[in-house]
Amino acid sequence: MFTGIVEETGTIKSFAGSKLIIECSKVLEGTKIGDSISIDGCCQTVVCIDKNSFLANVSDETLKVVKGFKTGGKVNLERALTPTTRMGGHIVQGHVDGIAKYLGNSEFEVSESLSKYIVYKGSITVDGVSLTVSKVDGNVFGIAIIPHTLKNTTLKNLKIGDNVNIETDILGRYIEKFLSLQNNESNITMNFLAENGFV
User: What is the 3-state secondary structure (H, E, C) of 26-92?
Assistant: First the structure.
């Protein structure tokens, strides 16, 4: 589990087959084999470490969902939460839901299947960065981003048409599941959620 507060940006040293090697420094401190590191919002297991880099094996399932990795590309990195970590962002699983296209002016376009989970003033993760949704208009959403976050993440490098990894807030997916269960005898309805500010 992560917070979406990026610790550093790293560089993809190589990506061949399933082997992804990331050059970095800060996230290597205290990291050991078997630990999880979020790479552009995608939770990956460290399988090898050296002085300036780590290796992760990317599964076929992951490659079906994420925007892809390119040698030389910059990526946002965050180590997994510990019991003493401050929760500065929001709860992020590191399970990318899909990709969005950057439209410029801090706006992104997503598929209809993802847009239903994005709510105004809700949380969203873009390439592993915890952000607040500042606008929702159909399949397009905007984000609120402060200069510090822009300066210290790869978001500053975005060009119109670029794809980004998106993880929506897990709460929305759980609510959808609960409401869709057959013989659901819960008192939780869409009207109840709306009246109490959840949707």
Answer: HHHCCCCCCCEEEECCEEEEEEEECCCEEEEECCHHHHHHCCCCCCCCEEEEEECCCCCCCCCCCCE
> Is the Cα dihedral 143, 83, 49, 24 positive or negative?
positive
Which fold is adopted by the domain 8-79? Elongation Factor Tu (Ef-tu); domain 3 (2.40.30)
- Ordered by start, the domain boundaries in the chain are 8-79, 98-180
* CATH code, 98-180: 2.40.30.20
pLDDT digits (tens, 9 = 90+) for 70-108: 999 999 999 999 888 777 888 899 999 999 999 999 999
Task: Check for a shared fold between 8-79 and 98-180.
Answer: yes
Total Cβ atoms within 10 A of residue 113 = 10
Q: For the segment 26-81, what is each residue's pLDDT rounded down to a tens digit?
A: 999 999 999 999 999 999 999 999 999 999 999 999 999 999 899 999 999 999 99
pTM, whole model, 2 decimals? 0.87
